[in-house]
Design brief:
The protein is α+β, with helices and mostly antiparallel strands and 71 residues long. It contains two helices and two strands; from the N terminus they run αββα. It has helices at 9-19, 53-65; strands at 34-38, 47-50. The model has no long low-confidence stretch (mean pLDDT 85).
């Protein structure tokens, strides 16, 4: 459940990427890094995030195809 004073996972991801210079504010004009898939929602598990459009597309393809490898 999201609360007003808590960051969403996407907001945290973008803040972390900006703070570590993995992306710039200018990068956000064309793509917003986001969660691609979240396994075990509301419990511990794996969260897959895409930093770039091509990375997000690749992760989505891997999940859809269940290949587990990048093409």
């Amino acid at each position: 459940q999201a609360y007003r004073y808590r960051l969403s996972l996407n907001e945290w991801l973008i803040g972390h990427l900006l703070a570590t210079d993995a992306i710039t504010e200018a990068d956000l004009a064309t793509f917003h890094p986001s969660v691609c898939n979240r396994l075990d929602r509301n419990t511990s598990g794996i969260v897959l995030c895409g930093k770039t459009l091509s990375g997000s597309q690749a992760l989505s393809r891997i999940i859809k195809d269940r290949t587990g490898r990048y093409r």
